[in-house]
Amino acid sequence: MISQSSVLNLSWEQRRKLTGLLFITPTVAFVAIFFIVPLLMTIVMSFHDWPLFGERAFIGLENYQELGSDRQYLKSLDFTFRYTALVTPPIFLLGFILASLVRHNIRFIGIFRTIFFLPVVIGLGVSSLLWVWMLDDRIGVFNKILLDLNIVPKAQLFLGRPNTAMNVIILSVVWKTVGFTMILLLAGLQAIPDELYESAEVDGAGYFRKLLYITLPLMRRTIALALILSVIGSVLAFDQFYIMTRGGPRNSTISIVYWIFNNSFTYFKMGYGSAMSIVLLGILVALTGAQFYVLRERY
Amino acid sequence: MAAPSLHKALPSQSGLTQQDIRMLRRRALLALRYIILIVLALLFLFPIAWSFLNSIKLPAEALAVPPTYLPSQVSLENYEELTTYGKIGVAQHIYNSTVVAIITVLGSIVLSTLGGYGFARFNFPGKNLLFIMVLSTLMIPFQSILIPLFVMIVQVDLHNTLLGLALVYITFQLPFGIFLMRNSFLAVPLEIEESALLDGCSSLSVLYRLMLRLVLPGIVTVAIYAFINSWNEFLAALIFMTDQDNFTLPVFLTTIRYGIWGEVDWGALQAGVIVSIIPSLGIFLLLQRYYMDGLMGGAVKN
Question: pLDDT tens across B158-186, in order?
């Protein structure tokens, strides 16, 4: 704190300025130390050969050059984008259906909204532990049900083959995250005045025409926001692959973040991991930029 | 809302008026909506219910191949096994997660409140620039700065400590927290504060005695998010905690999933899943309104 006498010499205006600065100092310091400094360090480290211990060496663009010949890295990029492309539509469609179903304030609707949202509050790591067990070939409930209903002749190794692994992980992530999209879209739906639908009904418009000419156009921005947030989450996916498949089978489910994690914290090639982080950051900034662009009118 | 009926009820051949038909149709649609909702709700609840059912089976039954649908006997043995799992047992990990969560909540509240108040109510040089700096960190996913964070935390010897992990979590919460608290303070009418300031109260006591109560909903929202995010976080906890004694709950549960000598204790794992779900679920259910406020006020505007 500043001593009483020096404060007394300042005008009220100056004192307010100083107080304001003091209020924000801890916060800004935190953000600077834990966000800005690491961000700059990521850039610096990406130009270095940077093992956890031992000599660091400046190597210019070598890490970035290595990216081009790192087959697993390219595979991970491809996998992450494919995963994102596959997981986004079901999250969005189911989110939209759920939002439409819980839109009106009919009796008990709050309970349904809460139930659909519940998995969002559970950690992705824990939900992955729950799903990997349900998907197990010997002890899992899915195989039990499928076998009992004679849908499959023998137990399936859902996580043992690249295609089915992708599908069941998508199923688990949809369960875990769709409630979030539902709530976003619900807010958008409820912002549309009922009168619009009523007058459309008077004109004889059916469900699909109302959807096409009222709901979708008016929810453009909400939809874009829901899609972008969902895409960002998918590009950053890690927990589900680390826990459910350990990147397998045959390294087919290693996402970008997973590959950064392996390089940086298993092989301790931190400079190389930083170069990959910078690329990831670029992708994310572009996506967030798109998000701000979509939301620009509001602010 | 019901659409106003424009056509007057006309008698139809079946004896039902058109209004009757419309009402029946509406009822049938409503019933259909409820049926779909109930089926979906059951599907959504199924994983959690299934996990719970298995956690209260006898350990041997929880490991049965093929699995049984309902427990033949209710037992808490899986939970008991969890308390002695590995060499440490679950209590230590619950403690770790709780300590990290408490530090994260307190740190996030204090820093977000101070910062939010400063940005909302004071003018000083560089204010806009600093606020933009804070907000722009919302664009940086923490996954992309974990490497330098790890290097820094190792350098100050805070890796493998609960405090180190909590500091990282507080940072992840700050942009959202400051943004939310700034909006909360902006929503309070200026006059309330001015009279107190004219009476000679210091800014800090105005904040403490007057404003805190008015922005309490915002503080609760910040606290809920700090708790749930810290309690659930996996990747940073996995990286920063290298010593098993310091594992948070999710990281500890992952060690069960990979088992001891290849044997996975699925019963204990499900008991652990239930234990780690309960706090976030409980807080969400109790304080749902504040959670949703955060979603609308913060996450959406991120």
Answer: 989 999 999 999 999 999 999 999 999 99
Query: What residues in A contact B212, CB-CB < 8 Å?
Result: none
List C-alpha distances in Å: B156 to A51, B121, B152, B163, B295: 17, 35, 7, 12, 35
Inter-chain touch A225–B127, beta carbons under 8 Å = no
Rounded Cα gap, residues A20 and A251, in angstroms: 52
pTM recorded for the entire structure: 0.90
| B174: nearest CB among A31, A183, A273 | A31
Helix (H) or strand (E) holding A58: strand A57-58
Whether residue B148 and residue A28 make contact (CB cut-off 8 A), yes or no, is no
Structural domain of residue B33, as residue ranges? 21-79
Determine the Cα–Cα distance for residues B63 and B46; give it in Å rounded to an integer: 19
B101/B246 same-domain check: yes
Both tokens assigned to A48: 């270095």
Q: Which domain holds residue A184?
A: 62-298
B269 & B125 share domain: yes
In this prediction, the answer to ipTM > 0.85 reads: yes
Q: Check if the beta carbon of residue B270 is closer than 8 Å to that of residue A129.
A: no
Query: Are B104 and B214 members of one domain?
Result: yes
- At B241-292, the pLDDT tens digits run 989 999 999 999 999 888 767 778 899 999 999 999 999 999 999 999 888 8
CA distance A267 to chain B (A): 13
Chain A hits for B281, Cβ within 8 Å: 118, 121-122
Chain B neighbors of A101, CB-CB under 8 A: 33, 36-37, 40
Yes or no, beta carbons of B235 and A238 under 8 Å apart: yes
Same domain, A11 and A147: no
Does A122 share its domain with A256?
A: yes
Give the closest of B37, B270, B296 to A187, CB-based.
B296
Which CATH number belongs to the domain containing residue B92 in this structure? 1.10.3720.10
CB contact under 8 A, B47 and A131: yes
Q: A10 and A119: one domain?
A: no
| Residues 6 or more apart in contact with residue A217 via CB below 8 angstroms | none
